[in-house]
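Predict the structure of Ribbon-helix-helix protein, CopG family.
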Amino acid sequence: MTTSDHVELDVEFPEELLAELDEYRASRGYPSRSAVVTAALEE
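Done. Here is the predicted structure for Ribbon-helix-helix protein, CopG family.
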């Protein structure tokens, strides 16, 4: 997966939906989107 694949995933969604997704991910013990993007960029 390239960095551009990650970026395209963020574009279409309203911020409220992304905030709910982050809360859901956090409640399941998954990293936040920003942590995933940061890790992808550091690779």
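The chain has a mean pLDDT of 75.
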